[in-house]
Design brief:
It is globular, with a radius of gyration of 23 Å. The strands form 4 sheets. Strands 1, 2, 9, 10, 11, 12, 13, 14, 15, 16, 17 and 18 form a 12-stranded mixed beta sheet that branches. A 4-stranded antiparallel beta sheet has the order 5-6-8-7, covered by helices on one side. A two-stranded antiparallel sheet has the order 3-4. The two termini are about 40 Å apart. The protein has a domain at about 275-490: Dipeptide-binding Protein, Domain 3 (Dipeptide-binding Protein, domain 3), CATH 3.10.105. A hairpin with a 6-residue loop joins strand 5 (about 80-85) and strand 6 (about 95-100). It has 13 helices and 20 strands. By secondary structure, it is of the alpha+beta class.
């Protein structure tokens, strides 16, 4: 998914200023009326929320409204268009009461029927690559009057509020968005903080304040222009030339290091811990990795510190569990089990299985999904495994579309994937990867997780009280080595030193809240 990061850690962003200074700022001065221009390499794939489970969420968060949301500093869903709560002890009935006087930007009323229409059309259309997969626990939607919406679930699911807080569940106008088809006229009518005045595919989106908005966002600017770039190099050049005021998504490790080192530039860099992760997937049905000791030996050899240092130059962190740092339930299971990389221990694991010759191994990765550093990352993994003398690695790669088709057919013995969470809950880092049918298309049947631990945890609305279940689930993942976590990312916003608010602009899903940005008024 997009994707879609995080986290308690993301709520406490650390600002690294490349130009020291002491500043007072306000959004009320003349400069505050000038639109802020933000550059990104994350262009929407569609303007209809029913069709997107990807980076399109960046735009949606700013022009649409959801029942719940994640204000800066919160890792649990908070009221946006509505006040919501479970009305039963089993987390199966979720009721929302809309704010009074809500309206779409075209003046149409936003009522309970609009909410029901917005969610049900996701299921009806079931767009390929769309967010219908998030609604697996939903049974029916019932409205009462103009302001009350009740969601009845098939099974206990305490993560349902988190799902409603994703931009995928944006509320749309029934008169403009068909119940059984996607809207394709290139226009948007939401009820969010901004109105989308104009949109040019591959070029830019013009946002201005929505005068009828009623929600949690405290807008600190009058409007924002989002410019879309194909390459980060051009985006950074535009920032240095003052053609844009800030960037989000797309900075390479080299560009981050350059921005950190060049202290004579009138730029600043805001850093936060991300929840996006990278990991290896083992297809246990393939003979080369069907034996557990082979997978364990790989886990024993991989040197995450070296990988992060050489390829990502400190812009990522080693990861030892599928649940990353900053998410409740995070552990260091793979480090606890395997410790530091040790070739001798790996050799012993293989010898006890009767394997005394180098194991032929093919590693697959995609060339155009996770950034230009992916190829270097897999070269480093190959180097580590080859130098151990225990493996003979071949690297293969394909563009994302073909790569996806290949792993869905079970053609790859080992392949690299990334995960951008839908919401900041440990469930979203465990549930998608287990079960006969999972997002990886490599069946991983573990009833202890799917039939016991996950259902038990979903009955508990206090998500901080389910760490034990997820710690147990992660121990099972360590036992099986079907997934091998490698690293979690850091997130960066580069901006002109005139721009304030970057340290508050990323929500726990690491979606950019444009309303937090403002121009500083004076030195």
């Amino acid at each position: 998914m997009f994707n879609r990061t995080s986290l308690q850690a993301a709520a406490a962003l650390a600002s690294i200023s490349l130009l020291a200074g002491c500043t007072l700022f306000s959004g009320d001065d003349a400069d505050g009326q000038k639109k802020i221009v933000v550059g990104t390499t994350s262009e929407p794939s569609t303007l209809d929320p029913a069709a997107a489970w990807d980076g399109s969420w960046e735009l949606y968060r700013n022009v649409f409204q959801t029942l719940l949301s994640f204000p800066t500093g919160s890792t649990t869903p908070q009221p946006d268009a509505a006040e919501c709560k479970f009305t039963d002890a089993l987390s199966k009935v979720f009721e929302c009461r809309l704010r009074e006087g809500l309206a779409f930007s075209d003046g149409a009323k936003l009522d309970a029927q609009a909410v029901k229409h917005s969610i049900e059309r996701i299921r009806t259309i079931n767009a390929k690559g769309g967010p219908n997969g998030l609604l697996g626990s939903l049974d029916t939607i019932v409205t009462s009057g103009e302001r009350t919406v009740t969601f009845r679930l098939k099974e206990s699911d305490a993560t349902f509020p988190y799902i409603l807080a994703t931009p995928a569940m944006s509320i749309v106008n029934p008169a403009k968005y068909p119940a059984d088809a996607l809207r394709e006229d290139g226009k948007v009518f939401g009820s969010g903080p901004y109105v989308l005045d104009s949109y040019q595919v591959g070029a830019e989106a013009e946002l201005t304040k929505n005068p009828t908005y009623k929600g949690f966002a405290d807008r600190k600017n009058e409007g924002v222009t989002i410019r879309y770039f194909k390459e980060s190099e051009a985006m950074v050049a535009a920032l240095k030339n003052k053609e844009i005021d800030a960037t989000y998504r797309g900075l390479t490790a080299e560009e981050v290091i350059e921005l950190q080192d060049k202290r004579d530039e009138d730029l600043q860099l805001v850093e936060s811990t991300g929840a996006d992760i990278r990991y290896l997937v083992f297809n246990a049905q393939d003979p080369s990795v069907s034996k557990l000791p082979v997978r364990q030996a790989i886990a024993q050899i991989i040197d995450r510190d070296a990988l992060v240092a050489k390829v990502y130059q400190g812009t990522a962190e080693p990861l030892y569990s599928m649940v990353p740092k900053g998410i409740s339930g995070h552990t260091t299971g793979f480090f606890d089990r395997y410790g530091e990389p040790d070739v001798d221990k790996a050799r012993k694991l293989l010898s006890e299985e009767g394997i005394d010759e180098p194991v032929p191994l093919t590693l697959w990765f995609t060339t155009d999904r996770y950034g230009s550093a992916t190829a270097a990352e897999f070269k480093e993994i190959k180097r580590q495994l080859d130098e151990s003398g225990l493996f003979r690695v071949t690297l293969k790669s394909k563009p994302w579309k073909q790569f996806q088709e290949g792993y869905q057919k079970g053609e790859y013995p080992v392949f690299g994937r990334g995960w951008f969470p839908d919401f900041p809950d440990p469930d979203n880092f465990i549930a998608p990867f287990v079960g006969k049918e999972n997002v990886l298309s490599t069946p991983y049947v573990r009833p202890e997780i799917t039939e016991q631990l996950l259902p038990k945890s979903r009955k508990v609305s206090d998500r901080g009280a389910v760490s034990e279940e997820f710690e147990q689930a992660q121990e099972i993942l360590v036992d099986d080595v079907r997934l091998l976590p490698l690293w979690q990312g850091k997130l960066y916003i580069a901006a002109s030193e005139e721009i304030a608010g970057g340290e508050r602009a990323l929500d726990p899903q690491t979606v950019m809240q444009m309303w937090e940005l403002q121009r500083k008024a004076s030195w």
